[in-house]
């Protein structure tokens, strides 16, 4: 399948989605969200794919929502068309997905990165929620997710001033899991994704679901949820395989079941 604004490749059991609007710093327009959603649907529907990577270019992961497309929207346009709700497709991705960010991840770009399960940053990465400088506020989860990643004080400062943070600050405050040299970013993301894709797919998906629960519920409820999923994993052939392989001192061969 071909898309206008993203490129999709598969590397073994890993699906790689690249934003591809170089003329606009990968600014996110309606077509890009359509393409991203279709690519996610295709990769999620493929049992042979165990993990996804979302990336941009060396210059920009994505420099935010497309300001040229948005500038003349009216309130009825945004309300009646439920503008932005379709962006949430990314946050409903059930397979593990890694954001590999080089260059600018601003506004909606930072919000899309935060919808992924974790962010690997190139040393060139710059994150920010500059919407306030355009007379609006973050609209795709930025105020909520950034506060959960980095805490109230820094999230407030970022959203109220619109300043950018570099990769070192982003790692220090927990927005990104790791920094890698820009030249190695995609290769490293594919390597990490490949390792995840070699795990049991249902177990990886349940693990993701369970970690995400931590942000939506109380500790007691979350622990109960985790226990139910954990117990259910003893119904999987992958549990028998993983433990038998450990005892036999051989690598496991998980088969998504
Ligand atoms: N929208 C449209 N075009 C853009 C965007 C954007 N967000 N960002 C960059 N471009 C375009 C520029 O207009 C320019 O085009 P042209 O060559 O035709 O003039 C081209 O990309 C290159 O950009 P610059 O010349 O500005 O490159 P610089 O290296 O000088 O600067 C920056 C790079 C710092 C990234 C700068 O372009 C910039 O500040 N961009 C805007 C960043 C921003 O404000 N992002 C937030 C947008 S609002 C938002 O995301 C709200 C999300 C809410 C939820 C979702 C709603 C849909």
From TrEMBL:
Q: Which Pfam families match?
A: ECH_1
Q: Look up the signal peptide feature and give its range.
A: none
Give the source's domain of life in one word.
Bacteria
Question: Is the Lipid metabolism keyword given for this protein?
Answer: yes
- InterPro entries in the cross-refs: ClpP/crotonase-like_dom_sf, Enoyl-CoA_hyd/isom_CS, Enoyl-CoA_hydra/iso, Enoyl-CoA_hydra_C
**What EC designation does it have?**
4.2.1.17
The UniProt keyword set, sorted, is: Fatty acid metabolism, Lipid metabolism, Lyase
**What chemistry does it catalyse, as a reaction equation?**
a 4-saturated-(3S)-3-hydroxyacyl-CoA = a (3E)-enoyl-CoA + H2O; a (3S)-3-hydroxyacyl-CoA = a (2E)-enoyl-CoA + H2O
MF terms in GO: enoyl-CoA hydratase activity
Q: What's the family?
A: Belongs to the enoyl-CoA hydratase/isomerase family.
Q: NCBIfam families attached here? A: PRK05862.1 (NF004517)
Summarizing the function annotation, the protein's role is: Could possibly oxidize fatty acids using specific components.
The name under which this protein is listed is enoyl-CoA hydratase
